[in-house]
């Protein structure tokens, strides 16, 4: 372990130096530094893109790999690192994209704000570091039969059995020290891990003192504790590791693990930063010409355009919000939308930029009798517990916390990231709402898509037969998930405190990502259309009704807990739905599914081999290819997609056989 620690500390030092502006020889910054051609060109240096580049350059030492990244190399500080004093949601440190959606009329015209990494390493550099995995039922549904024979017979499996080896391979998990296990009660199962990659997950040596209060209250609600939730079964209370190094407690991300850790030893692996992948271009506008497309690139320094040649293939890995815009600019998408932007259609694929999904969240909050003030700020800190977040306002405490973070091994509150525990509850456990919700879903499925379910789709694709049929297929999968007593519908991550978020894991509403027709090189137009399928509002109300029972548990009653939000006067389903409309957070920064893996007949964009339908030498590999949101935060799946893209005989075996 000691050499691995030294290597990680060295890599951290390298990126800290780079953040100060010292150039790195292997990093390219202008077209003149590039080779005449590459074998593989990857558009996007994020979580999945760098994983693919690492594995391809390793497997084919004589083939040249190029990654084109809009951002630059930066130090990716953690979610809760010095000098922060409040452990609150934020995206400090590395550069980010901020997307603001159109208003959603079904939820009081609220807008979604979505943040993604604009940096080498992508969102793995700026996320909350909550490193859980989805339920096996999510992926079994994703891979379920479609009735399209060619698609269903594919050798590539994206079910749990097909993905689990790549979840394991994608991360190195480090067992916590005995002192932490005894103090906090961490549990895990070694058999669900086993990777040796320099992408790390671990448990911190610190937790706030009120964490056991919430855990005890949830147990009193009947939530069962699980030893491990990363092995496919996660209904219950789970410990969740953090994407950080186990000794330094610094963020572990793909910029470190899949670029800085390997680039010095790979003379076939190039990274071009501060350049925008504009589009892919088939010289004769025919995507079936037998050769991969050229890649048109724009230098951010002066706006100059130039082409990069890929000898074998191009892989788009720009994320769920930028991958569709690259495809749109390339002529892939709904013809009507492309025409409005003055773009000729290369392949008519109405699913490009459709099927947008994200996790949303609502809040319950309570107050306790034991309250006090720190520096005049009222806080709900129980007087008999320490340490708690308000202690961060004590100069002596924060000085010690900062010193502890710089020790080896690191200690103290700054070793925390987002949280390390959550509950995952199936809808079937919410007995008062389960039957009415599933009845509504069945009614949406009961008639032909053109008569019912398709009315919940965005207007610009609701008349598309493939899109209507594809949504009908998804509704059937969602009905099965919500009827499954082992498939979570609700996530509640927590780390103590006096509020909890109810996260809707499997939304029914579908939004869009569309090219900005007047400024096609700028940010896309997001339309979340939250609540456009009313099932989402009913599910959110059910989640709130179920979770607010925590306030009546013996543990919280003993502390004088009184509900603040939604409030005791919000009692009926209609009142809860209204509360959701007014208060819901539309995005917790998990966009996905905008180039979905489905047959073309069902509105899909890629096949199970990740090839874009109707195109030669072009694949997509990032969170946009997911069909449904997983019951987890998305970074672990993004890594697994990157690993499976190259490792499961999808690219490496294909080109190994061709040599």
From TrEMBL:
Protein family according to the UniProt entry: Belongs to the GMC oxidoreductase family.
Species assigned in the record: Apiospora rasikravindrae
Full protein name: Dehydrogenase xptC
Protein's UniProt keywords contain Signal: yes
Segments passing through the bilayer: none
Domain of life: Eukaryota
Domain Glucose-methanol-choline oxidoreductase N-terminal: 117-140
Position of the signal peptide: 1-21
Entry keywords, A to Z: FAD, Flavoprotein, Signal
Gene3D superfamilies according to UniProt: FAD/NAD(P)-binding domain, Glucose Oxidase, domain 3
Flavoprotein is among the record's keywords: yes
